Amino acid sequence: MKGAPTLTPATLPDPVWVAAPHPDDEALGCGGLIAALGAAGREVWALLLSDGGLSHPSSPSHPRERLAAARLAEWREGLAELGVPAVRTRALGLPDGELHACAGAIAGGARAAFREAPPGTLLLPWARDPHPDHRAAWAPLLEAARAFPAVRRLAYTVWLEERGDSADHPRPGETLPLTLDVRPWLAPKRRAILAHRTQLGLIADDPRGFTLPVTLVERALGGTETYHEVLPQEVPA
Ligand SMILES: [Zn+2]
């Protein structure tokens, strides 16, 4: 976003929590920032909402349970590349594709996780990021964060540039856009994204299987991350 102020990672209060609806959202949306924080020895925690088990619904080699286990392992592997150890990860295991029906479980699960390390900063997917699970995560995550009044809330985007229309973008004054030059962190960010092998063509026996678009991955590795800081008057979901 041209002209937006620069985000200074050192000013974000610890601990920093990153919430991901699916394994890979954190790497694609904010892998550079997480890597920068990790390299600085900062305390970063990660919360995974869904089991990621819907990406390959008819794979004989990867029935749902196996797929979900593989994706959880990939998630932790990618986070380790960014400096977040497995001990600072929490996974709610909610059903992929059905987060719209899980508001209470997201809010309750997130609140319980946050109590273990009360967040100074929360990174969460933008309210109108164009994926139903991402949109469904917004209100319950903000609700969980409300128990920690001083928390800074920064929205990241995954699908907005790929699929969003103009109404999906934050409106002027709705949030405070901030940009971060992540070129120094592209190597770990790339490794974190590539850890998600099931989303990058590993599973070849499901014609309905999902693969991350090349354009989305290239954009994620473009060198800039944009955040939208949530202002005190919250954005309705
Ligand atoms: Zn996602």
From TrEMBL:
Protein origin, superkingdom: Bacteria
GO MF entries: hydrolase activity, acting on carbon-nitrogen (but not peptide) bonds, in linear amides
Matching Gene3D superfamilies: LmbE-like (3.40.50.10320)
Pfam families assigned to the protein according to its UniProt record, in alphabetical order: PIG-L (PF02585)
Protein name: LmbE family N-acetylglucosaminyl deacetylase
Species of the source: Deinococcus budaensis
